[in-house]
Amino acid sequence: MMELKIERIYTKPVDLDGYRILVDRIWPRGISKENAHLDKWLKEVGPSTELRKWFGHDVARYPEFKERYLAELTNNPVYYNSLKAIVQSQLPSQNVILLYGAKDEEHNQAVILADKLRKDLQLI
Hints:
This protein is α/β, with parallel strands linked by helices. The protein has one domain (about 5-120). The protein has helices at about 35, 50-55, 60-75, 80-90, 110-120, and strands at about 5-10, 20, 40, 95-100.
């Protein structure tokens, strides 16, 4: 079984060993489409604009951000289910890499998505 990974899109060297999915609603500044080496951009699975602005990458708000973001995914599951189906179909043959742009590598939506996917797909 291959791995579900998360990676900041600005990280060098870029991990190209797998199916790369950007899970940000906004395209990362300064990254060209060619340099992103994406297989898929699922912007709709990212937090809503309102939630993203409210969070503002304030670590103190992260627990509530996580709760609100998971509620968004539950209330509108179509995009999460699409991501889950892609991960499920790709993992037997290659790694899946969830990409995000945030500077904080521990407090962002990709971390939340990866945890949820690991639980839902029983990867842990």
